[in-house]
Amino acid sequence: MSAHRPRKRFGQHFLRDAGVIGRIVAAIDPRPGQRLVEIGPGEGVLTGPVLARAGRLDVVELDRDLATTLARRLGEPQGLVIHQADALDFDFSGLASEGPMRVIGNLPYNISTPLLFHLFDQAEAIEDMVFMLQKEVVDRLVAEPGSRQYGRLSVMASYHCEMAWLFDVPPEAFEPPPKVDSAIIRMRPRVLSASERALRPDLDRVVKAAFGQKRKTLRNSLKNLLDVERIEATGVDPAARPETLSLDRFLALARALGGG
């Protein structure tokens, strides 16, 4: 079957390097009985070896041409379930009826951040995630307070997941080569208590407001949510900038917003 022409509007860059593919499959370590879900299988370079080791694999593919030809490309294997759908709208938790699932994939770089937030919303149904992402996004995911990359994504990702940067992938491993470096990351959702889950909406509001005006102090960026006295009552300096605050400090502010 002829190669699929990558579509810019879907942010498609197809992995071609066999060595990199092997390292990713080894990092995933798929096994029989696991519920695995792949986002954006493309031409199936990860799909084939993962399915061979796991025996079953659900894939979510937006590109109709790829979705309708994937099974044929792979020789009509048993255990492959194809969902032709937009991952940004897909109900991943609906696939976890038999227990937590593992989510993998080379995420489209043009939607990676909103897609990660969509998955955070369903984190309770997920055991772990192994993704290839733009290296800049991985930088932001694992960034520490005070660093240039630290922002809303860093805070919310650390709230939901434990993360491990596995290895980098150069542009020449793809066709067409992207203009950026890539990296593989493992994200393992934390087990949150009921009170921690209930805090999520207030945490999201505080973090979004704080980093919406990153150069401003908390006194100014949070003025529509918390006054100076309530900020000070949490032990946080109202004159601080959001990029200096740890997750614990943001959680304190969220509790103040929620009245807890």
From TrEMBL:
It comes from Wenzhouxiangella marina. SMART domains: rADc. It is found in: Cytoplasm. It is an enzyme of class 2 (transferase). The keyword rRNA processing applies. Belongs to the class I-like SAM-binding methyltransferase superfamily. rRNA adenine N(6)-methyltransferase family. RsmA subfamily. S-adenosyl-L-methionine binds at residues 13, 15, 40, 61, 86, 106. Coiled coil: none annotated. SUPFAM superfamilies: S-adenosyl-L-methionine-dependent methyltransferases. Its EC number is 2.1.1.182. The gene is rsmA. This is Ribosomal RNA small subunit methyltransferase A. It catalyses: adenosine(1518)/adenosine(1519) in 16S rRNA + 4 S-adenosyl-L-methionine = N(6)-dimethyladenosine(1518)/N(6)-dimethyladenosine(1519) in 16S rRNA + 4 S-adenosyl-L-homocysteine + 4 H(+). GO terms for molecular function: 16S rRNA (adenine(1518)-N(6)/adenine(1519)-N(6))-dimethyltransferase activity; RNA binding. GO terms for cellular component: cytosol. The keyword RNA-binding applies. Keywords: Cytoplasm, Methyltransferase, RNA-binding, rRNA processing, S-adenosyl-L-methionine, Transferase. HAMAP family: 16SrRNA_methyltr_A (MF_00607). Specifically dimethylates two adjacent adenosines (A1518 and A1519) in the loop of a conserved hairpin near the 3'-end of 16S rRNA in the 30S particle. May play a critical role in biogenesis of 30S subunits.
